[in-house]
Design a protein that fits this description.
Elements: E1 3-8, H1 13-24, E2 29-36, H2 40-49, E3 54-57, H3 63-70, E4 76-79, H4 81-88, E5 92-97, H5 105-114, E6 115-120, H6 124-139, E7 143-146, H7 149-157, E8 166-173, H8 183-187, H9 191-195, H10 204-212, H11 214-227, E9 234-238, E10 244-250, E11 255-259, H12 265-273, E12 296-297, H13 304-315, H14 317-335, H15 341-353, H16 363-394
The protein binds magnesium ion.
């Protein structure tokens, strides 16, 4: 029996790796629906290559172009946010949820309700709506399979029957491109420098998050919800080689680790084949070729984002939403060279400092609150970018 698959967000880097894994084992998988935000050409190419039944473009204005591209292929097409949510609600064995940012939230909830398993590749839905996603999964008996490499590693060495004997989850972090930089250089860092990740090749947003270590902060929150572990039992450990993807320490002193090459196709294959294993077209780990593996503590002063994860978790889900939303807006502004590297965290801190406690029960509550935080962050950045311009003009 082939596994039926929906891929939400197929044109991004995770979507591409998913396609690689599927194409390497066509006898195992049957692709139902593919979705993309607005890249019609790539979506159409992937739909043909993967022999998909349907392609959905979230940006409805691109639907006509998609129809033209798919003419004569027999692949159905649809467009718009509603069409995307409908497609996400199509029953299947496994949905790969890889839509970047909060745009993935409504579709992922639909997938959790209607798929047998959901491979979660984007962290924002869990960070912003963790309690809701987990509750829906429990209600519909849907397996949540983490694809983020750290959580995938923990998933592989996590013994649910011994959860009370777990001392801590150890999330490894590469430390990003600025691990050895001093603050003065970091202050002047350009988007290009922030995008030069030492081990992983990833999308722009997550690469900048890796440079600020906000990526690890979001992963602490993600781990808290996925594995139902209190924040004090989740630790960040810097491991520059990115070979050990994360670990679980048990009461008897055993530390179980999962290792692998820095290749997203491994966690994706693990999730797609679960509970079985399959051969992966990715790189394999050559430990003999490595001179050493090193570990060091996380410098929370140099990378304050990591500390904010713990304060946000302590404050409650609303603070986690704000942390994620403010960061996304600030990272966009940095990538557009409107603000400097340190201003990303200043913007996030400005928002966190002004927060009042909110109780958010529904998806609409969450989306509304997320939106208000984005507006507040954008307004703060507009003021800040204005000041920067004035400063630059003032320099003779
Ligand atoms: Mg990760």
């Amino acid at each position: 029996m082939k596994k039926s698959i929906n891929i939400l967000g197929v044109t991004g880097s995770v979507g591409q790796s998913t396609a690689d894994v599927i194409l390497s084992a066509p006898e195992r998988f049957e692709v139902m629906t593919l979705s993309a935000h607005r890249n019609v050409d790539k979506l159409a190419d992937m739909a043909v290559k993967l022999d998909a039944q349907r392609a959905v473009i979230a940006d409805e204005s691109r639907l006509d172009a998609l129809k033209v591209r798919l003419e004569g292929t027999g692949i159905a097409s649809s467009g718009g946010q509603e069409a995307l949510e409908e497609a996400a609600a199509e029953p299947c064995d496994i949905t790969v949820a890889a839509i970047v940012g909060m745009a993935g939230l409504r579709p992922i909830i639909q997938a959790v309700r209607h798929s047998k398993a959901v491979a979660i590749a984007n962290k924002e839905p869990l960070v912003s709506a963790g309690p809701l996603v987990i509750a829906e999964a429990a209600k519909h008996r849907t397996a949540l399979l983490p694809v983020d490499s750290e959580h995938n590693a923990i998933f592989q060495v996590f013994e649910p029957e011994n959860r009370l004997q777990i001392e801590k989850l150890i999330l490894t972090a590469s430390g990003g491109p600025f691990r050895t930089w001093d603050r003065a250089d970091m202050a002047r860092a350009t988007p290009q420098q922030a995008l030069a990740h030492p081990n992983w090749s990833m999308g722009a947003k997550i690469s900048v998050d890796s440079a600020t270590m906000m990526n690890k902060a979001l992963e602490v929150i993600e781990a808290h919800y996925l594995f139902d572990m209190p924040p004090e039992k989740i630790e960040i450990l810097v491991h520059p080689q990115s070979v050990v993807h994360s670990m679980v320490e048990y009461a008897d002193g055993s530390v179980l680790a999962q290792m692998g090459a820095s290749d997203m196709r491994t966690p994706l294959a693990q999730a797609l084949a679960w509970p079985e294993r399959m051969k992966t077209p990715g790189r394999t780990l050559d430990l003999q070729a490595m001179s050493r593996l090193t570990f060091e503590p996380c410098d929370m002063e140099k990378f304050p984002a990591t500390a904010h994860a713990y304060t946000a978790l302590e404050a409650g889900p609303y603070a986690c939403i704000a942390l994620n939303a403010a960061n996304e807006v600030a990272v966009d502004a940095f990538l557009a060279t409107r603000i400097g590297f340190f201003a990303i965290m200043e913007s996030v801190e400005h928002i966190l400092a002004g927060l009042r406690s909110e109780t958010l029960r529904t998806l609409d509550d969450i989306i509304r609150f997320d939106h208000s935080v984005r507006e507040a962050t954008a307004a703060y950045i507009d003021r800040k970018a204005g000041e920067l311009k004035k400063e630059i003009k003032a320099v003779p």
